[in-house]
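Onboarding guide, step 5: your first structure request.
Type a short instruction followed by the sequence, for example:

Predict the 3D structure of this protein.
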Amino acid sequence: MAQRMLALDLDGTTLNHMGELSDGVRDAVAALPDEVIVVVATGRSIIATTPILTALGIREGLAVCANGAVTIEIDPKASAGYAIAETVTFDPRPVLDRLRVALPTARVAVEELGVGFKVSEHFPEGELMGETRVVEWEELVAHPVTRVTLRQPEATAEEFGEMVERAGLHGVSYAVGWSAWLDINPEGVSKASALELVRRRIGVEPSHTVAVGDQRNDLEMLHWAAWGVAMDNAPDEVKAIADEVAGHVDDDGLVPILEALGEAAKNGTPFRDGVHSQATARFQV
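The system replies with structure tokens like these:
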């Protein structure tokens, strides 16, 4: 039977709004047949992603981190449990110099792969995983990076989004999160761009791809997949481009999708035409 590829966002999709993995979701992932290859695709750093992979029981394969700028190969034999398969970097100086003027009080972080973050000042507790080091501005912009994150805890998401719009960012890809949070990646880099490379590497046909997500950084991924599923807790603009809307993450809305995918894979049934209800989801010809 043909292999299927499931691209799975973490926060707000697989993990609830408390950042927890429910027993129902974990068990539904574990019950997927071998024909369904699960590829986590997240905005999280490597350090924040690998514990979730372990909790999900994913012990081999590839995972996309940092909104597509980093792809890791899960390798239990490696000292860190993974090897870096792909990275895409950019020069952060031009965009950060512009944002320093437009958002002078925003906190800035640049990721140090497998270590943590260099920051302009500390972020609210629990928002960044790994080691954080407060450094001078020149050190923040001195070297190519995979991702830059800006955070303005004092602003609402709407206020922050308006400030980012006024900044007029060019030459990069970016997504404003549900809070006053901005992730900036190299131009053209997204979860979708990384997932396409993964798809080709593992040899899954484009028509056998499904993606599930809940935020604006999932838009390209939902477009990319043959079947894009948005969570009910997603913003309206994300739900509008999805082929299907699942239940709310806090109600284990992902579980019926996983069960339906597993059933379709076992039956050798295409899942390009999905039908969703509050109780169940079925993918059929």
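Each response can be followed by summary notes, for example: The two ends are 16 Å apart (CA to CA).
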